[in-house]
Input
Amino acid sequence: MSETPSHSPAHSVAGGSPEHEAVTPSPPHVSRRRLLGLAGLGAAGAVASGAIGGVVGRATASPSTAQATGAPVSDPSAAVDFTGVHQAGIVTPAQDRLHFVAFDVVTDSREALADMLRAWTTAARELTAGRPSGPGDTGEAMGLPASSLTLTIGFGPTLFETADGRDRFGLAAHRPLPLVEMPSFPGDALQPAISGGDLCIQACANDPQVAVHAVRNLVRLGVGVVKVRWTQLGFGRTSSTSAAQETPRNLLGFKDGTANLKAENGRALDRFVWVGEDDADWLLDGSYLVTRRIRMLIEDWDGVATAQQEAVIGRTKEAGAPLGQRREFDPTDFTTQTNGRPAIPHDSHVFLSHPTNAGTAMLRRGYSFVDGTDEDGRLDAGLFFIAYQRNPETGFVQVQRNLAGDALNRFIRHTSTAVFACPPGVVDGNDWWGRGLFEPTR
Output
């Protein structure tokens, strides 16, 4: 639960940040092509919106350098700026609560879909500032602060072309090549009803009511255009996206995400997270999102001695240190031996998911979940894995294939999967989610 952002499928273990990459602040990434586009909007508007310098959603109208690079703000109730080169909710310091929802589009009208995205953008701008979504707001967040709410949108493969080959909205020609459904992996127990989706919204906040309120009102505004396909509530972030955040623990009791990519490591983000000029033009400065609902077989895990659990993970349970070391952030040394054997077993989660062996990295920001019990009275609990990457094939898919022999697989089941292309951020008051896709000449 540490090498990859937090454990790829297994624990969100999906590919950690290269440990040789120094976690030092880097200047905000703004591509040349993006800057040219901003120039067309007017320099004053670009600066006011935070497009230049707002690499991570900002916490105040005039953010400090630390806030602009994604460091946590002292007030968990503060607002995160909605505008920026990248969408907030990716490298933004991970909040405590999640409400994730996937939608099916129920209209064939491109105009109706675009109008809804404009309305969603307007509402999201208000909601993330701690204000009502507009006329008809449902009201359950009245009196509550913004609680660092972020709203992040993604477009699924079926938005561009349905399973039966229909191009409902004239978008097929703009579908990014890496945006394809996830392949099957050994041990998958996927449920189609809670997988996939044409669109998704990731709502993260430090107050669960604020996150639920935001999703509820976007659903309200989408009536007749979209319907909810599936949702997932999450609590207790299972990874850190800022160097200032402590490493959390997942439901297996281990620290998760020690080697996750961090907001301060700009060069690694450019390499592994943000889409570059080699991809679809409208997706430049965006990212790809992979989700997996990973049920942990809690009762089976609880019956295993701590020493065996540590061998499965490859780290100590209390300190989170790589086996053979003493502290969490000690180097992961695969040459260390204990009693003539590798201290870190070669079938451990850490060994197989570590960037040295997996050859890639992702930015994970997953959450724990407990969805009651099953018919046998066993907890339906685990990790809702969320990972952002520049290309799913060389990110999540590569790591997951490397985990085929993971000792952790005995204790987990993947029950849901989805992939989405997340467009770049909204840069000013005239911009809206997906504008570059629906108005490609912008």
